[in-house]
């Protein structure tokens, strides 16, 4: 029987909160990288549900090679025009036809994928029209015979279709919480109701220098709702104030000296340069996107932390460990930190081996930092038990991901 090895070790590393410089980024809902991640994920979910409904299981597919090519627009205070649409290209592998006892069955993958991408846009954007402003295309091929057999096997526990690893950690630092919450608040229905001029393309960059916090926000202001430069400046101030309110809430109980907030720092009013968009995303004219270039599985980009470069978006939730193990690693780290405590940080790395059952990774590496005395044997035992429990329940992720109840990016 294939066994998993669990290694729990204390590491000599200065916790992030005690490092002098910390950097954190979140690409928000309307960022081109977030859009293409979401497009690939919605497409994968649509295919997965079709496979389940018609064939009883999720068949081989991976739609994690997407590309968003930005369009071209001309905007001004009070309005604008889209001159060329945004192009969204979903690329990857999928089961496009299947032999059944009643004959060959064709999967309507093109319709499924296009409808899914447009659904994401309709559900999340107020001014981006999926029929007028976006062209959806795809390059989908059947997977190799060996991978199809691995993924489409009738094994009770799916087998890994790649040799890859996932990484997770806990807890979030105050800066990580602040960056995440800032984007979520600016893109909340509540804030958009009060400040509708704020676009969905909101990117937040956080810097901590010792006890000083610096937050830089890029927000795509809606041109049709912004009649002049004075109104534009007032919208920026509303955004800035929202960040200060978020900081006050998130950093409550945290010792800090100052919070600086900057919004749309590329603006040069004297030269007529403002961050205006017609649709609420820079993808209409100024930027492109690639699957996997955006947020990691915890919704952040964190260069001070261990990270995996795997894209969670678009991967097969049944068997692609590049998706599954990143989610499970985060959940493991959070449980270990919350349920056992007594440590400063927990890092979890899970490595697969292609063909092995996903419940039997090659190794689960659990690392922690602790500045105080700690019963290391007791901690290692409890952490390993949590890891075993999470791995045993790994197939429960399938339903949660298909119901979009798990954060992926």
Write the layout of secondary structure elements.
Blueprint: E1 5-10, E2 21-27, H1 32-55, E3 61-62, E4 67-69, E5 72-76, E6 79-84, E7 86-94, E8 97-100, E9 103-106, H2 109-124, E10 134-141, H3 145-151, E11 165-170, H4 174-186, H5 189-194, E12 202-209, E13 212-219, E14 221-222, H6 229-250, E15 258-263, E16 276-277, E17 289-290, H7 321-340, E18 345-351, E19 363-369, H8 376-392, H9 397-402
Parallel strand pairs: 1-19, 7-10, 13-15, 14-16
Antiparallel strand pairs: 2-12, 3-7, 4-7, 4-17, 5-6, 8-9, 11-18, 12-13, 18-19
Helix pairs in contact: 1-2, 4-6, 7-8
Task: Throw out a few tags for this protein.
409 residues; alpha+beta; GMP Synthetase, Chain A, domain 3; 5-stranded mixed β-sheet; 4-stranded mixed β-sheet; 32% helix
Strand % is 15-25%
- CATH topology tier name of the domain at 16-26 and 174-282: GMP Synthetase, Chain A, domain 3
Uncertain segments are none
CATH architecture of the domain at 16-26 and 174-282: 2-Layer Sandwich
* Total count of helical runs of at least 4 residues: 9
Number of strands: 19
What best-fitting shape do the alpha-carbon axes yield? flat
Structural class: alpha+beta
Through-space gap between termini: 35 Å
Order of helices and strands: EEHEEEEEEEHEHEHHEEEHEEEHEEHH
Q: Mind summarizing the main beta sheet?
A: 5 strands, mixed
The helix fraction, in percent, is 25-40%
CA radius of gyration is 23 Å
Average predicted local confidence, pLDDT: 96
CATH domain class name of the domain at 16-26 and 174-282:
Alpha Beta
CATH superfamily of the domain at 16-26 and 174-282: S-adenosylmethionine synthetase, N-terminal domain
